């Protein structure tokens, strides 16, 4: 990423030391303690629990991790809008759910000092909201998992058009765009790159290639690990998690593909805004980023090394421009059209 990220890489460390010396003052009731922080997240429960435990170890207080799917959490925050119960919302398979939530009055504006000097878009990747409604914590790459016992590295698909090769008929899985945000991103990207007419023609062919379209975004990668599919569309960390477990899985970054930050936001009007802000600071610190890296996510803090072969520097040449305004305007319509065409 641009120099601005590396310039501020040490700032959070100094901030953490100062906070440790000065004592915690992040509390909803001003008692000088961190207090309880309610942490909404659809990300891996064991990972978010580990993040909460590390924060408690470093800063005190307690982190109440509440896990649910992204749509469930958004609906919950909408229902709680007049009496918010959460403090921080982290994760949703990339920026799209956060963009859609930005004007709903459920997320507030806060950018940690670590990210204050970032441009809104760095090297074609949107890393924070222009009005401070979210900030990226890690990098997600949409691409192809493949079973290394069934597919060689040389013959694995390298572009989205390669998925249409007749040799993959009945051997591909991707998740259902009517249910999965991962697959919705795949569809929206192709519509933006090809235009809608050619985009729908592409998916008519791709659907014919698939042996299954499960609802879960991670299911195609798991199917690849079990040999139920040769190729699965998903995010990079899904493949590298399976590979770390000893499964015969590897990952291809397509020539041009969506590369997104996975964000965190403060909940508007939450009961412990100071504690929530401190938790957001922690997620961008070396300690928080190391946990994300240990779970095979690509860290955004340049002082933390990726545990996978992928780094921000390696993947950013593959990034496509995503028209966020178009996505916000057409997200629901495109999903509904998918249902009409393919379900």
TrEMBL record:
Residues 1-19 form the signal peptide. The keyword rRNA processing does not apply. PROSITE patterns: PROKAR_LIPOPROTEIN. One of its GO terms (molecular function) is thiamine pyrophosphate binding. CDD domains: PBP2_Fe3_thiamine_like. The keyword Signal applies. Keywords: Signal. Pfam families: SBP_bac_6. It comes from the Bacteria. One of its GO terms (cellular component) is outer membrane-bounded periplasmic space. GO terms for biological process: thiamine transport. This is ABC transporter substrate-binding protein. It comes from Rossellomorea marisflavi.
